Amino acid sequence: MLDITTQLTTNPKQKPAPDELGFGHYFTDHMFILDYTEGIGWHDGRIVPYQPISLDPSAMIFHYGQSVFEGLKAYVTVDNEVLLFRPDQNFKRLNNSNDRLCIPKIDEEYALEALKQLVSIDREWVPNAPGTSLYIRPFIIATEANLGVHPSNRYQFIIIMSPSGSYYKEGINPVKIMVEQQFVRAVRGGTGAAKTGGNYASALKGQEIASKEGYAQTLWLDGKENCYVEEVGSMNIFFKIDGKVITPALNGSILPGITRDSMIQVLKSKNIPVEERRISIEEVVEAHNNGTLEEVFGTGTAAVISPVGELKYLNDKLIINKGEIGEVSQMLYDTLTGIQNGSIEDTFGWTIRL
Amino acid sequence: MLDITTQLTTNPKQKPAPDELGFGHYFTDHMFILDYTEGIGWHDGRIVPYQPISLDPSAMIFHYGQSVFEGLKAYVTVDNEVLLFRPDQNFKRLNNSNDRLCIPKIDEEYALEALKQLVSIDREWVPNAPGTSLYIRPFIIATEANLGVHPSNRYQFIIIMSPSGSYYKEGINPVKIMVEQQFVRAVRGGTGAAKTGGNYASALKGQEIASKEGYAQTLWLDGKENCYVEEVGSMNIFFKIDGKVITPALNGSILPGITRDSMIQVLKSKNIPVEERRISIEEVVEAHNNGTLEEVFGTGTAAVISPVGELKYLNDKLIINKGEIGEVSQMLYDTLTGIQNGSIEDTFGWTIRL
Ligand SMILES: Cc1ncc(COP(=O)(O)O)c(C=O)c1O
Ligand SMILES: Cc1ncc(COP(=O)(O)O)c(C=O)c1O
């Protein structure tokens, strides 16, 4: 196992008030950095004071988008311990993304060890008000100073952390989502299953259109036939139709969400039928029209569950479950957040206590 | 028109020897920077010594890939003047890319003025050995320090310049190109027509596979039906079949190359029939099999023309024009490079002298 050196800040920042947190605005006192140099491999893992990154203007990240990232959270439990939720899965997915983007793989165990040390050092930054958490952002950027188009020969793997506020300040609020018709997020053979910057950049335009029409997020359809449901901006999507829960299968163009996987496991453990398969937007509309579309919800690290209250498709506005959170959505939310805050026993072995 | 301030370097770098140039390794003494701040617009245009960019680790460019770029060249003419080739087209395309990536547009005339001033200041860096040129890289990156997924509220527009060597050191060398089967570069509704980092990151994997098999570049097929020819890694593609020159139409998923457009205009001016339309890989194979596939060539700023000597598709290896440069390819190459080095009169009005 590689070493990790630590240089503590001499100038700790003031922590923001719990109700000012929001998402992704504030960062803790320290960050982790690991360098990659071709011929040497990953080296010089270090925890250092949070600080700017200085790169040559020709650094590849500024030109050719070779980057991957992850997003996970640390929670304070009811017993005032800190736990991480399935961090091993995030580093595994990071390596899958690395493979697609021609970035050298990291040692997953080492990354987890580095993360644990980093969270321990910034322990006081993990907020403990209900619903708050410490959002953790591991990412890798190509840093070679060269304008040739080829995989970079240098990278930095960095972890930064941001205390983040409660997603649902006034109870769980169903969101309105719009089916995107013109733009496509990803297609089979592309990078949709990887967590890479380009996917998010390409999604902004659809997002902008949805926002203008008053919708919170875009529901993406597949890029080939433009009729199968893929996922939402930063969530996977589930439909409860006639008692069965259906979510698009991992087809190579959607992100394999860790919350998605957790939800499927919880559903199975409760004997609620769940199917991973192709589902067309027409099937959803039809289910709505014949009264069998019982619940729709998105899943992701940020909100855990986001019930969908309205789905706009062409000129139709489907109102789902009277715009209220459904029974299964509520159960899944309670189970997952319960495991995350330690109030429900973690029979799945998902959590890692520091 | 906005101002441009200039701060000259006190520490000029040594210029590399002409035969060491290569591509994208060396950078001139100065760079241009323009900032964007929401509510203010683009501001503080300045020419400064070439220097690192320092950004917060949460700067959006490191996470969500919101970036666009351009590539063009300055040439020393036979009369020892410096000219730019169609720079207005590059800034126009940059703005089209900006639109797709939700980046605020730049003032194209201002950008051109800034570029001219920058090239004038670094005039001595424009190499003048035959085939060499000054490669110019304008690019825009999202710099807001925030992990929310939304268009950035801050950007930097930067121009850096790199003296670059002759693409063809020992005469024009036809390249071997492989048709990619598994991976997809872009799909209609995606970002293929924009020059944004993510497109290049997603193409690396196909490129890697091609390289391993001894091919210089990937020929991409469309993402929907996986049978229509799109373009090569960093070139548009042309086929001469039975006396007619055919190139894929601008369908929204390929980059509208400026060299491509120039070639079409030159062909028309010489009364050589040229068609922009959909062309399937099967049509190309069939033309090869019945002996009517006369020439294949890529076009782009880097090489101007890259004749294709071999095209691999599935298990077939099509040898084109005995692996030699064709007559039309040679004529196009001579015409364009002649206009660029001032030895042929620019009847198209493409060049701008400093
Ligand atoms: C595109 C996309 N889909 C789905 C998800 C949900 O993934 P996870 O549950 O691992 O957070 C995310 C968020 O990370 C995402 O960005
Ligand atoms: C993907 C792609 N296609 C085509 C081209 C050719 O464009 P241009 O002729 O403007 O250089 C380039 C190079 O810039 C490119 O990157």
Automatic annotation (TrEMBL), chains A, B:
Biological pathway: Amino-acid biosynthesis; L-valine biosynthesis; L-valine from pyruvate: step 4/4; Amino-acid biosynthesis; L-isoleucine biosynthesis; L-isoleucine from 2-oxobutanoate: step 4/4; Amino-acid biosynthesis; L-leucine biosynthesis; L-leucine from 3-methyl-2-oxobutanoate: step 4/4
EC main group: transferase
Names of the cofactor(s): pyridoxal 5'-phosphate
Keyword Manganese among record annotations: no
Catalytic activity: L-leucine + 2-oxoglutarate = 4-methyl-2-oxopentanoate + L-glutamate; L-isoleucine + 2-oxoglutarate = (S)-3-methyl-2-oxopentanoate + L-glutamate; L-valine + 2-oxoglutarate = 3-methyl-2-oxobutanoate + L-glutamate
Origin superkingdom: Bacteria
Keywords: Amino-acid biosynthesis, Aminotransferase, Branched-chain amino acid biosynthesis, Pyridoxal phosphate, Transferase
EC nos: 2.6.1.42
Keyword Kinase annotated: no
Gene3D superfamilies with a match to the protein in the record: 3.30.470.10, D-amino Acid Aminotransferase, subunit A, domain 2
A Gene Ontology molecular function term of the record: L-isoleucine-2-oxoglutarate transaminase activity
Xref: InterPro entries: Aminotrans_IV (IPR001544), Aminotrans_IV_CS (IPR018300), Aminotransferase-like (IPR036038), B_amino_transII (IPR005786), BCAT-like_C (IPR043132), BCAT-like_N (IPR043131), BCAT_family (IPR033939)
GO biological process, one term: isoleucine biosynthetic process
Pfam families associated with the record: Aminotran_4 (PF01063)
Chain positions found as N6-(pyridoxal phosphate)lysine: 195
PANTHER family xrefs: BRANCHED-CHAIN-AMINO-ACID AMINOTRANSFERASE (PTHR11825:SF44), SUBGROUP IIII AMINOTRANSFERASE (PTHR11825)
Family: Belongs to the class-IV pyridoxal-phosphate-dependent aminotransferase family.
Full protein name: Branched-chain-amino-acid aminotransferase
Organism: Lysinibacillus telephonicus
